[in-house]
């Protein structure tokens, strides 16, 4: 089983030829409301990839809260640990222009009210193969939950920020992208960044977008996993799909090489579709892609 303690946002996405300048109004082409947030994305990715998943976080008592709850439920995620709190849900207002570039305003809303996992949450987390954390909740809540968890902690350090030592001391596996790895370690070279990460945590994966990913452990294992060559239409949540699938495969006892290939295959499927939760592949799709 996989536990995820993290954010749930509603992505409000406006598609337009070009983003408006300050004070300007432009005509948009299309609009979509897509459940997102790194926590909910990783929970959805892991559930679609075939695991039992429990999600812990908060949504608001606005119109978006029930939509996000149902979205997670329909992916098969156990949402008994998802609280409804007074006020707005977490929102990401996104403008995507025809170049595929985007500008985003994130409003934490209910995510900002999360203080830490409850005793009941920690009991469920303690029965899990992994606890997935990201940095979209208040850092004090993330640190407290990581320290209290009796399960291996997998940290996606995004959005990147300074990492408290007490958090890193509780992390079993860290999975930054190359930009986050550089910001954390000060090393531009991904191999050097990986080595620097392993001075702080036992295992690390640095994801490199269409270049694949690097894995290392303090025990000396090193792996390079190529990305699956595909035509990407939207890379939103590629990283979350990768982490979710990686943890599912590891929980099933697969070798690191196999688990990384499973994760790269799931992420490659997700970049061929638009959106966050809408793009994540099912277990059947991942297995089919692995055999071709
Ligand atoms: P995002 O922020 O978009 O969710 P990220 O920056 O956290 O993603 P990336 O390093 O971009 O993470 O991608 C994660 C993994 O997804 C990569 O290691 C790779 O396996 C896969 N991936 C990403 N982009 C592509 C692509 N264009 N083609 C194939 N696979 C890709």
UniProtKB/TrEMBL annotation:
<dbReference type="GO" id="GO:0046872">
    <property type="term" value="F:metal ion binding"/>
</dbReference>
<dbReference type="GO" id="GO:0005524">
    <property type="term" value="F:ATP binding"/>
</dbReference>
<dbReference type="GO" id="GO:0019303">
    <property type="term" value="P:D-ribose catabolic process"/>
</dbReference>
<dbReference type="InterPro" id="IPR011611">
    <property type="entry name" value="PfkB_dom"/>
</dbReference>
<keyword id="KW-0479">Metal-binding</keyword>
<feature type="binding site">
    <location>
        <position position="240"/>
    </location>
    <ligand>
        <name>substrate</name>
    </ligand>
</feature>
<keyword id="KW-0963">Cytoplasm</keyword>
<comment type="function">
    <text>Catalyzes the phosphorylation of ribose at O-5 in a reaction requiring ATP and magnesium. The resulting D-ribose-5-phosphate can then be used either for sythesis of nucleotides, histidine, and tryptophan, or as a component of the pentose phosphate pathway.</text>
</comment>
<dbReference type="GO" id="GO:0005829">
    <property type="term" value="C:cytosol"/>
</dbReference>
<dbReference type="InterPro" id="IPR002139">
    <property type="entry name" value="Ribo/fructo_kinase"/>
</dbReference>
<comment type="similarity">
    <text>Belongs to the carbohydrate kinase PfkB family. Ribokinase subfamily.</text>
</comment>
<keyword id="KW-0119">Carbohydrate metabolism</keyword>
<feature type="active site" description="Proton acceptor">
    <location>
        <position position="240"/>
    </location>
</feature>
<comment type="subunit">
    <text>Homodimer.</text>
</comment>
<feature type="binding site">
    <location>
        <position position="236"/>
    </location>
    <ligand>
        <name>K(+)</name>
    </ligand>
</feature>
<feature type="binding site">
    <location>
        <position position="275"/>
    </location>
    <ligand>
        <name>K(+)</name>
    </ligand>
</feature>
<feature type="binding site">
    <location>
        <position position="270"/>
    </location>
    <ligand>
        <name>K(+)</name>
    </ligand>
</feature>
<keyword id="KW-0630">Potassium</keyword>
<comment type="pathway">
    <text>Carbohydrate metabolism; D-ribose degradation; D-ribose 5-phosphate from beta-D-ribopyranose: step 2/2.</text>
</comment>
<feature type="binding site">
    <location>
        <position position="177"/>
    </location>
    <ligand>
        <name>ATP</name>
    </ligand>
</feature>
<dbReference type="Pfam" id="PF00294">
    <property type="entry name" value="PfkB"/>
</dbReference>
<feature type="domain" description="Carbohydrate kinase PfkB">
    <location>
        <begin position="2"/>
        <end position="283"/>
    </location>
</feature>
<keyword id="KW-0547">Nucleotide-binding</keyword>
<keyword id="KW-0460">Magnesium</keyword>
<feature type="binding site">
    <location>
        <position position="136"/>
    </location>
    <ligand>
        <name>substrate</name>
    </ligand>
</feature>
<keyword id="KW-0067">ATP-binding</keyword>
<protein>
    <recommendedName>
        <fullName>Ribokinase</fullName>
        <ecNumber>2.7.1.15</ecNumber>
    </recommendedName>
</protein>
<dbReference type="GO" id="GO:0004747">
    <property type="term" value="F:ribokinase activity"/>
</dbReference>
<dbReference type="InterPro" id="IPR011877">
    <property type="entry name" value="Ribokinase"/>
</dbReference>
<keyword id="KW-0418">Kinase</keyword>
<feature type="binding site">
    <location>
        <begin position="207"/>
        <end position="212"/>
    </location>
    <ligand>
        <name>ATP</name>
    </ligand>
</feature>
<feature type="binding site">
    <location>
        <begin position="37"/>
        <end position="41"/>
    </location>
    <ligand>
        <name>substrate</name>
    </ligand>
</feature>
<feature type="binding site">
    <location>
        <position position="273"/>
    </location>
    <ligand>
        <name>K(+)</name>
    </ligand>
</feature>
<feature type="binding site">
    <location>
        <begin position="9"/>
        <end position="11"/>
    </location>
    <ligand>
        <name>substrate</name>
    </ligand>
</feature>
<dbReference type="InterPro" id="IPR029056">
    <property type="entry name" value="Ribokinase-like"/>
</dbReference>
<feature type="binding site">
    <location>
        <position position="279"/>
    </location>
    <ligand>
        <name>K(+)</name>
    </ligand>
</feature>
<keyword id="KW-0808">Transferase</keyword>
<feature type="binding site">
    <location>
        <begin position="239"/>
        <end position="240"/>
    </location>
    <ligand>
        <name>ATP</name>
    </ligand>
</feature>
<feature type="binding site">
    <location>
        <position position="234"/>
    </location>
    <ligand>
        <name>K(+)</name>
    </ligand>
</feature>
């Amino acid at each position: 089983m996989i536990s995820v303690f993290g954010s749930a946002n509603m992505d409000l996405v406006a598609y337009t030829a070009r983003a408006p300048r300050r004070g300007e109004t432009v005509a948009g082409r299309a609009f979509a409301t897509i459940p997102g947030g790194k926590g909910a994305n990783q929970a959805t990715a892991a559930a679609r990839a075939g695991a039992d998943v429990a999600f812990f976080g908060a949504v608001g008592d606005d119109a978006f809260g029930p939509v996000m709850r149902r979205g997670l439920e329909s992916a098969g995620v156990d949402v008994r640990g998802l609280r409804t709190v007074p006020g707005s849900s977490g929102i990401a207002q996104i403008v995507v222009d025809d170049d595929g570039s985007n500008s985003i305003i994130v409003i934490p809303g209910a995510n900002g009210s999360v203080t830490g996992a409850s005793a009941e949450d920690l009991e469920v987390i303690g029965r899990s193969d992994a606890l997935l954390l990201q940095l979209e909740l208040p850092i004090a809540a993330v640190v407290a939950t990581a320290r209290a968890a009796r399960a291996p902690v997998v940290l996606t350090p995004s959005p990147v920020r300074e990492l408290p030592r007490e958090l890193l001391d509780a992390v079993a596996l860290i999975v930054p992208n190359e930009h986050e790895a550089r910001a954390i370690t000060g090393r531009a070279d991904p191999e050097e960044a990986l080595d620097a990460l392993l001075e702080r945590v036992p295992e690390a994966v640095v994801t490199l977008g269409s270049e694949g990913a690097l894995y290392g452990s303090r025990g000396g294992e090193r792996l390079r996993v190529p990305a699956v060559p595909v035509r990407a239409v939207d890379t939103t949540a590629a990283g979350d799909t990768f982490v979710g699938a990686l943890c599912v495969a590891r929980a099933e006892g697969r070798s690191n090489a196999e688990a990384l290939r499973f994760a790269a295959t799931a992420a490659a499927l997700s970049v061929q579709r638009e959106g966050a939760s809408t793009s994540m592949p099912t277990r059947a799709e991942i297995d089919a892609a692995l055999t071709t």
